[in-house]
Amino acid sequence: MESLQVNLKHKTYQVHIKRGITKELGKHLRAQCSGEKVAIITDKNVYHIYGKQVLQTLNSEGFETHVIAIEPGEKSKTLATLNDVFGELVRAKISRRDLILTLGGGVVGDLGGFAAATFLRGIPYVQVPTSLLAQVDSSIGGKVAVDLPYGKNLIGSFYHPDAVFIDPDVLETLDPREFNNGMAEVIKYSCIKDRQLFEELMSFSKDELTDNIDRIIFKCLTIKKNVVEEDETDRGSRMMLNFGHTLGHAIEKYFNYSKYAHGEAVAIGMYQVTKNSESMGLTEHGTSLMLKELLSKHSLPHQMPESDAAQIVETIALDKKSKGKSIDIVLLSSIGECFIKNICKDEVAKYFL
Ligand code: NAD
Ligand code: ZN
After folding, report:
1. Is the Cβ–Cβ distance between 220 and 189 less than 8 Å?
2. Sign (positive/negative) of CA torsion 97, 103, 108, 109?
3. Cα-to-centroid distance, 283 and ligand 1 (Å)
4. How far apart are CA 138 and CA 145, in angstroms?
């Protein structure tokens, strides 16, 4: 088992990565939780595949279990679902001595984590992320949230779990498009901080990728952990995790979160900005070509949707959330090294189009 410890100002917690750990969760939870009840917040897809084994391991350690299975997908990350979840937690008489366990992708982790942050003013929770995106990104960092009709993640908090349990074996049942969606974030980490990882990803066959996925998850989480520890509340250096995201978010939003998955939009964002920064001489020659090859290897797009490109880029400068005349963007100096650049809003087309 690989473990890493996230050291925050007011809290420390462990992230465990081990193949098959889903089947032995009971034992691990027993070691750290004195409560009797566990409320499992999951989605119906994940529950259908892994519910039985999770219940079995928890029950065999004497936990009383309550399952709250929401409809899968982003459309469930709402106040309405949260309201239902709270109702179930009340019915199950969950107290502050008990535990919430989130079992699923980023939707379940974000919504379940926010429920844990707010129910009875906060009860302990552990994350069991099951999508690649959740395993390498959303399960650590403490950002929990739900969406509003006006935008994504508008209601949320910083609330860290007591532990994270990652089972790379569960990725076997993940839809290939979802797997590649998570690979976009893996590629992002390699671009901003780990050239060796980038080179490995370039050379791996499909089987080699599967065989090494636990080590890859560990590498990504180590990068995220270091950044989160330095900047818990996302005011400074966490910014570097936004490589590809300024344009990525604009693309997702422009198409109402339907045409492109998050990772696909980020893939376009990473390539586009790198192609432009390279032609401005800010990025080592050849970087964007390498990036394009790696993205294509994982069936990820790199090109802007042509007829909408100008309008999408325009929305970046118009974004109400970015006040003032300039924005910070993340650029690569070469594969494995990034820097933050403050650019004028009237330069956005130069960097993103
Ligand atoms: P998701 O939770 O919707 O999961 C994707 C799909 O895969 C779902 O249909 C789910 O049922 C299915 N699934 C998950 N694990 C499976 C498995 N092992 N086998 C079979 N099917 C499985 O989406 P996601 O991509 O995991 O997460 C996206 C969410 O994460 C977004 O809401 C985003 O805002 C959030 N997010 C949060 C952070 C953060 O720091 N908190 C960071 C990045 C993304
Ligand atoms: Zn992302």
Report:
1. yes
2. positive
3. 32
4. 11
Q: What is the pLDDT of residues 175-221, one digit of tens each?
A: 999 999 999 999 999 999 999 999 999 999 999 999 999 999 999 99
Q: Which two tokens stand for residue 127?
A: 């994350």
Q: Label residue 237 by pLDDT band (50, 70, 90).
A: confident
Rounded CA gap, 321 and 150, in Å? Answer: 12
Q: Which residues pair with 70 in a beta bridge?
A: 43
Q: What is the pTM of this model?
A: 0.96
Residue 87 contacts residue 53 (beta carbons within 8 Å): no
| Distance set, CA 154 to CA 21, 77, 79, 151, 287 (Å) | 33, 11, 11, 6, 35
List pocket residues of ligand 1, CB cut-off 6 Å.
43, 45-46, 49, 72-74, 77, 104-108, 110, 130-131, 133-134, 137-138, 141, 143, 152-153, 170, 173-174, 178, 181
For helices 79-91 and 106-118, the axis angle rounded to 10 degrees is 60
Phi, psi of 90 (to 5 degrees): -65, -50
145-158 pLDDT, tens digit each:
999 998 899 999 99
Ligand nearest to the CA of 249: 2
Residue 137: CA count within 13 A, CB half-sphere: 22
Tokens 């109400």, residue located? 320
Residue 15's H or E segment, with its range, is: strand 12-17
Give the chain's radius of gyration (CA, Å): 20
What is the number of the ligand 1 atom nearest to the C-alpha of 143?
41
* Alpha-carbon span 277 to 332, nearest angstrom: 8
Virtual torsion, Cα 171, 172, 176, 178, nearest 10 deg: -20
Paired sense of beta strands 337-344 and 326-334, if any: antiparallel
Length of the chain, in residues:
353
Which residue type, as a one-letter code, is found at position 233?
T
Q: Which residue has the tokens 């050239």?
A: 195
Nearest to 131 by CA among 164, 178, 189: 178
Amino acid identity for residue 66 in this structure = H
